[in-house]
Amino acid sequence: MQRRKIHHTYVELTELGFGASAIGNLYRVTPAADAAAAVDTAWEAGIRYFDTAPHYGLGLSEWRLGSALRGRPRDAYVVSSKVGRLLVPNERPQGVDSEGFVVRDDLRRRWDFSREGVLRSIEDTLERTGLDRLDVVYLHDPDDHWRQAAEEALPTLADLRAQGVVGAIGAGMNQSAMLARFLRETAVDVVMLAGRYSLLDQSALDDVLPAALEQGKSVVAVGVFNSGLLSRDRPAHGMKYDYEDAPPKLVDRARTIAEICERHGISLPAAAMAFPFTHPAIINVTLGMRNPEQVARNVELHRGRVPEGLWEDLRAHGLIRSDVPKEHTHEGGSQCP
């Protein structure tokens, strides 16, 4: 699996990344054996970028990921985690976490983008994962915390980068406008863009993607299925879009895209995974993976080739924006999937 470097750093990501939210029991329980087998299958397929966060399962994702990677050569893989949600004892547990993860709520999340909070969060993550370092650290959803995130958290991460404690720093969010600010106004190397550059939403073309090119910085794309609507060959009513029931008009649009993909001999999910790479700022697509079967399917979809003319056909039908950059060649000469 090909690797691409985060610009101006030594950190290289495989084109496909393993998102570890699901092994933190996102929405439902993932058996420990499935979580370990998912990481093993990803490794065997050549995936060497793994993303986690304290938020995912109140630390369960970090613990499971660290356990699954233990014993593997540390220089052979890249791990990213996040800061901003500090895990602290929960004085009033109700039994189960209230933020989408099926885990006990003995801990709770506390927003904290202070220098002390960042340092403590990283220390806690290293303890849970058993790792000696983090390769990438992102600010996690700082939507309502711009000032503290930009003025305290990022300078702290920049200090750690200068000391060689972390290799690259960034921010991850579901919106693109503030990510563009981070790219233009702060010392981030990379941003994690969730759902805003997909076959159904190219709004990042208005802000974060031009900012990344202007500043010579990198983008990791997540949420490329937009919460599920693009994850099946045949989209259906009742599927999710951005965590809610997809509007009927959007389902119809997804179906039309799927029909055009089918005429070109490619599935909708495969096209959805390949589409972010049409933009030169995007170096990686990371997907949540729960078990070996999901990993194997995602790897197979990633390895497929996009037929010549698909993007042009979608543009001609007004289904993707005409200002989306056309196919290009990445550094090293590798052709866009």
Structure description:
- It contains 10 helices and 14 strands.
- The chain is an alpha/beta fold.
- The protein has a single domain (3-319), classed as NADP-dependent oxidoreductase domain (TIM Barrel, Alpha-Beta Barrel).
- It has an 8-stranded parallel beta barrel with strand order 3-4-5-8-9-10-11-14, surrounded by 5 helices.
- A hairpin with a 2-residue loop joins β12 and β13.
- α1 packs across α2, α3 crosses α4 (146-162) and α5 (177-185) packs parallel to α6 (208-215).
Rounded to the nearest angstrom, the radius of gyration is 19 Å
- What is the correct CATH architecture? Alpha-Beta Barrel
| The CATH fourth-level homologous superfamily | NADP-dependent oxidoreductase domain
Total domain count: 1
What's the total helix number? Answer: 10
Concise account of the structure shown:
The chain is of the alpha/beta class. It is built from ten helices and 14 strands. The strands form four sheets. It has an eight-stranded parallel beta barrel, surrounded by five helices. Strands 1-2 form a two-stranded antiparallel ribbon.
Topology:
Elements: E1 3-5, E2 12-14, E3 16-19, H1 32-44, E4 49-51, H2 60-69, E5 78-83, E6 85-89, E7 107-111, H3 115-129, E8 134-140, H4 146-162, E9 166-173, H5 177-185, E10 190-194, H6 208-215, E11 218-222, E12 240-241, E13 244-245, H7 248-263, H8 268-274, E14 282-288, H9 292-303, H10 310-316
Parallel strand pairs: 3-4, 3-14, 4-5, 5-8, 8-9, 9-10, 10-11, 11-14
Antiparallel strand pairs: 1-2, 6-7, 12-13
Helix pairs in contact: 1-2, 1-9, 3-4, 5-6
